Amino acid sequence: MTITSERRDQVLLGPLPPSFLRLETRTTDGETVTTVTADPAVGRQVELPPQGAGAPNNGAGAPNNGGGAPNNGGQPRPPPQHYTAHPVQPYVPQAGLSITIAQAVLNKSYTLIGSMDPYVRLKVGHNTYETFTHAGADKTPCWNKVYHCPLPNTHSVRTVSVEIFDEKALTDDQRIAYAKISVPQSVFEGHTLDEWFPLSGKLGEAKEGSINLIISYTTMPMITLPYQRIHYPYVGAAPQHFTPRPPPQISEADVTSIKDMFPAVDKEVIRTVLESKHGNVESAVAAILQIMEGEQGGQQ
Questions:
Q1: Helix (H/G/I), strand (E/B), else coil: 263
Q2: How far is Cα 169 from Cα 195, in angstroms, rounded to an integer?
Q3: Whole-model pTM?
Q4: H/E run at residue 285
Q5: Which of 1-5, 200-204, 272-276 has the weakest average pLDDT?
Q6: What are the DSSP calls for 85-138, one per residue?
């Protein structure tokens, strides 16, 4: 009870003093200026001028502009501010290569069981694009995807590279074919290039099949569509120098031992699985078993 009575003694009852919510300051001329220091809503109510002393005349439904100047309680209205309108920059379309990845014909299927699921990775300058995966297409995939690849000038990029991968569910995606294509000068002069380009791979140079590309040089707005899955390099990152990992040495004895365990599997396929597992025989056997179990479960 003592604490309650002490708190009640601190409560001020009655009308508020004139200095409530105000701070009086004295200027160099000796004039006292009162400013509001608390709630802005209360401050606006306190600072309202009294009726008849410069307040707007709302009796006739219009402001009191008898003297031709606004009535702001004797305070002059600040001069209007002039803003400089900046001219709109004209839109300048960016030029670049328009590349259509149409289709491909491959000479060999590298999957163990079933069909390959190919997709294409396109590299133009520092940018990389990927198509969707044509599931079950095996050796005759078709994409028909158009990519707009911006170029700073006609001399910055003269070659583009394509890689065809087989998408895997349990292991890393396998590169099955690749090609490096030179863009001729005629493309930059307005001609459209529509050709089949040979693919290289494990079968040898230009022996994996061919891919159909349509390349042209156009001026267009560079809009990245969601399905393009473009990957831009991080500009601020310092270049990293690393030594590429040497390819694993696959011994014929390892291939023969796995062949004895899986007579129905081709030796070339076993060698491919061993390469993807960096020569680890146990991992290769486990991968083959998982794929065969998955195929048997799907057939049942």
A1: coil
A2: 32
A3: 0.48
A4: helix 281-299
A5: 1-5
A6: PPPPPPP-PEEEEEEEEEEEEES----SSS---EEEEEEETTEEEE----TT-T
CA angle 266, 268, 269 (to 5 degrees): 65
Structure tokens at 63: 């402001």
Q: By C-alpha distance, which of 170, 110, 169, 179 is closest to 139?
A: 110
Residues 6+ apart with CB under 8 A from 178: 161, 162, 163, 164, 199, 200, 201
For 38-82, the pLDDT digits (tens) are 555 555 555 545 444 444 444 444 444 444 444 555 566 666 655
Query: CB-based contacts of 107: which residues, under 8 Å, 6+ apart?
Result: 139, 203, 207, 208, 209
Tokens of 103: 């289709």
| Whole-number Å distance between alpha carbons of 166 and 118 | 5
Q: Which amino acid is at 113?
A: I
DSSP 8-state assignment for residue 182: E
Euclidean distance between CA atoms 288 and 259, whole angstroms:
11
Residue with tokens 């050796």: 139
Residue 97 sits at the vertex; the CA angle it makes with 93 and 99, to the nearest 5 degrees, is 130
